């Protein structure tokens, strides 16, 4: 027994254990959640994200409840075998960890200024749309550092074959016949160099077209927007509504009133007025010069006021006109 306790673990065991613990705390395939972008200040962004998600999550799904393991054994004295007792303790720790997982849990996204909040028992698209709809209606600003809040309904490996295979099943609820609609694809890649934007968009558009030939592309005001966010080797995908109405799911822009954009419009209108007035003055100047030329033809002896070029041109016109008026001999 003492020999087993004194046995050292190999280096590979520690490496695998470190990889498993690291993967449990970062964005990975098979997760759902919310991608949140910010401009620096990631810690404050996480705090605001938790506040918003918990507030609206309680509205949709009720207060969060923690499940406690009630099936714990009460007969510890019956466990005489040390190995069986150790296995039992490990299983209890694992079950208590799984049962006590929170509804929202921040994980490492793998990119700067991007936070991933994993969700459990929550529909990310429904929750984020509910948040944006309320902010758009009330125009009440509830965050300072959060920029965009994008739902992640599914994840897969960031390779074109894996993405096409995943998209065929994932996109069926929106685009498979008899369902149909107009759509656009929004693509963004971070810390990834092997994926090409045109190839991804073309492949996903072909998948949507194969589900129903009546699905049409609309880049101005589509019914559905397919969001594709790639971070390292993980592809995050979701389908959202009102992407244009909610200002690309930007929390800072969606709360702005239409009146806040009027000064910019007035500035453009003023510049257009200045341009139009300068063109009008130029046109009037040309008309005045033509009028002076006509008067000069009618009155050959009259001098023309202006620059030297105009005087020379006027004089030449006068001389020509006077010769034309001479009677033929």
Provide a concise account of the structure shown:
By secondary structure, this protein is α+β, with helices and mostly antiparallel strands. Helix content is about 45%, strand content about 15%.
Could you explain how this protein is built, in words?
There is one protein chain. This protein is α+β, with helices and mostly antiparallel strands and 329 residues long. The chain has 10 helices and 9 strands. It has a 5-stranded mixed beta sheet with strand order 5-9-8-6-7, with helices on one face. A 4-stranded antiparallel beta sheet has the order 2-3-1-4, with helices on one face. Helix 3 (42-61) packs across helix 5 and helix 6 packs parallel to helix 8.
Largest sheet: 5 strands, mixed
Helix content estimate: 40-55%
Which strand-content bin applies to the residues? 15-25%
Order of strands in the sheet with most strands: 5-9-8-6-7
* Silhouette: globular
Number of strands: 9
Cα gyration radius (Å): 36 Å
Content-based structural category: alpha+beta
What's the pLDDT, averaged over the residues?
79
Distance between the termini: 143 Å
| Unreliable spans | 1-5, 67-79, 302-329
> Number of helix segments?
10
Query: What oligomeric arrangement do these chains adopt?
Result: single chain
